[in-house]
Amino acid sequence: MIRYLATRGLSLALSLLVASLVIFLVLNVVPGDPARYMLGMNARPDTVAALRAELGLDQPAAARYLAWLGGMARGDFGTSYTYRTPVAGMILDRVGVSLPLALYALALSTAIAIPLGLFAAARRGRAADTGVMAATQLGIAVPNFWLAMLLVLVFAVRLRWFAAGGFPGWGAGILAGMKALTLPAIALAAPQAAILARVARAALIETLGEDFIRTARAKGLTGGQALTRHALRNAMIPVLTIIGLQFSFLLAGAIIIENVFFLPGLGRLVFQAISQRDLVVVQSVVMLLVCAVILVTFLVDIAYVLVDPRLRRT
Amino acid sequence: MSGGLVIEGLAVTIAGRRVLGGPEGVSLAVGPGEILGLIGESGSGKSMTALAVSRLLPRGAVATGAARLDGRELMALSEREMCGVRGRDIGMIFQEPMTALNPLMPIGDQVAETARVHGGAWRAEAGRLARAALDRVGLGEIPASRFPHELSGGQRQRVGIAMAIALRPKLLIADEPTTALDVTSQARVLDLIRRLVREDGMGCLMITHDLAVVAEMADRLAIMTEGRIVETGPTASVLGAPIHSYTRALIEAATHRPAMPERARGAVLAEGKGLVRDHPAGPRRLLGGRARFHALKGVSFELAEGESLGLVGESGSGKSTLGRAVLGLERLRSGVVRIDGAEIGPHARMAPETRRAVQAVFQDPYGSFDPRHRVARLVAEPFHLVPGAPKGAARRRAVEEALGAVGLAASDAGKYIHEFSGGQRQRIAIARALITRPRLIVLDEAVSAVDARARARILDLLAELAGRFGLSYLFISHDLTVVRAITDRVMVMKAGEIVERGPTEAVLTRPAHPYTRALIAAAPRLETTR
């Protein structure tokens, strides 16, 4: 177990290093001049020269890469060119919105998908199963921004249960913050839940064909008991894989939803930074997202081991 | 009516087609403390009978008729009531010990679950009950916290038995409980079942395709074919004086001796010298790499032209590894395998002549063919070993000839593999091996998954082909009866070493090594009075 974690941890650190190198190369080295790119076509040569000095572009690439890595290790992500504030602080504020939103959406999606998958698997081939499958098909097909606007129309404009957008900040209290995130979380979770429910159903149905399910039934378990006590855990591996992928997507892929609800999240930050050509911010946020994805993959690996004792030996 | 299980007029229909029972239905009785052997070939309906009684038929299958357990009509029970019967009144054991247990749950919890779902038992009490059941099936040394993957096949089957008998059911249904086990584990598991049946006075419905397995332990036999029972009676009289022609055919097939041609031993065709094969096993140590498992520990052998050499041993003894080494498929740590004096192996440069000289037939008649290819292509596959292999009409003729040699029709070449039975598939595998005109065929458990009658016919075929084409065989099997029937000499393998070798008849009648004696003692025998 410890050896397994150590090996996984080492490969995780290596992936991070490779990712940082790729990001650095793509944004800084090839091709052309980042300073000229950030300032646009009509910049005056002395402005470009000033920015080059500020970004340290006169240094060799290897030195810049090491300085960037060293800075990140100290928590110094550089200074945003557009906002003139430290990038670390900006990102931290945005993560305070995006991370809770992603976790909220993921919790919702899992809480909907697993029972739905169980329900459909228990009634496979019957009308209820067909109905659930049709609903999930719809859930995947409906664009989440459309769903978001629908939610705003119904729950904010008509019923006035929620605000139509914006985020009060965690200073206003946890409940107020959660309330502001509820509609966006639902809009994000719905398609994810639909995908996850289908994966869960398929995995469960495959597991239900296994011999040990027949053994469980022979012991006197009802079909439902065999499903929840024996099939569910055995079907968790593909479900965990999808949950891991979904979390990475939710963290970074919420740009449209953040825009619909005027949420100050990471997605919007990247979007703005890209449109303002603020490479310092883009580079840092991308690196952070890569970190998050790799970390989630690591957590999913640990979850596999917790679920399946057969993996503990190696 | 007295106690025990009484089945009357049981029939199963799927989509309006009667798949079990024939016109009059299946009727059977298993008294308390009695072992009834239900014998049949694959597809005869014996497992379906068990599933119908326990009401676990696949969806869409409809059972009719009566099945009473101690006077209680099982067919009339609701699903919920039936859940109360399964596990408590009817215990079941299945064939596949590898997959019949939940891989994610400790064995103790799985046994305790039987007690817990039937109510009454709290966690601690169910745990004690599970421990007692595990002790009873001879797993006293094994902690209840172990997971299935940490146990051997025989131990897993014991866990399955512990689950089935934990609540002392009235009826034990054992469906091919030892088919997937070694002879020695098989003998021990059969002993265990017999002891438990006697101790608890439960009835036992013992389902198997193997007459020899039930010959020693069943009180009565029921012979089933095509969904109907054709003969029932006390074991001794059914085996000693069978009435129905099908029963006679089964008994004949189980004891069949093919007529192997008398041949003089020629020069050495295949030989191995000091073969060592090892795999990394166990956890990596801090220094010095991982512990290694030795599948072959310096094995040497010789196989003469025109000889049929048997290789027996338990699973894990290394016999399949040796077979693969002879086919040149194993990366040996040391030692050399030669065919006709030419070295073979994954890295050896082999002349086409050497490559085509050795062919193989494996155990699984279902998994060893690509289902998307027609038989003609499957059989012609080894031609890629032969430079200048026949093309077009000549190739077609060669395929038809090979199919003809194994008793199949030329028109079978255009069919797909799923259209054939297990026995026919093994014939196709033999045809595929024959097509390059090899001199040696390695048969690795080639008839183990085939029903008795088909097996007898394949053994006849192998004997005939040996004479006709001057073939040599390396015949790997755990089944001593088959090895006795088809081989001239035999090697007994244990833990990567050959512990005894000699003429088959001499080794099997006067074994010198204690391991050989144990193997022979454990092998179920079918002794008929004829």
From TrEMBL, chain A:
Transmembrane segments: 101-122, 134-157, 169-190, 239-262, 282-307
Pfam family, one: BPD_transp_1
Cellular compartment(s): Cell membrane
Domain spans labelled ABC transmembrane type-1: 95-300
Topology in membrane: Multi-pass membrane protein
Major localisation: membrane
Record's keyword annotation contains Transmembrane: yes
One annotated Gene Ontology cellular component of this protein: plasma membrane
A GO MF term: dipeptide transmembrane transporter activity
Keywords: Cell membrane, Membrane, Transmembrane, Transmembrane helix, Transport
Family stated for the protein in its record: Belongs to the binding-protein-dependent transport system permease family.
PANTHER family in the cross-refs: DIPEPTIDE TRANSPORT SYSTEM PERMEASE PROTEIN DPPB-RELATED
Record protein name field: ABC transporter permease
UniProtKB/TrEMBL annotation, chain B:
Location of the protein in the cell: Cell inner membrane
Pfam families: ABC_tran, oligo_HPY
Keyword terms of this UniProt record: ATP-binding, Nucleotide-binding, Transport
Domain ABC transporter stretches: 5-251, 276-520
Main location: membrane
GO MF annotation terms: ATP binding; ATP hydrolysis activity
Residues spanning the signal sequence: none
GO BP annotations, alphabetical order: peptide transport; transmembrane transport
GO terms under cellular component: plasma membrane
Bilayer disposition of the protein: Peripheral membrane protein
The family this protein is said to belong to: Belongs to the ABC transporter superfamily.
Protein name: ABC transporter ATP-binding protein
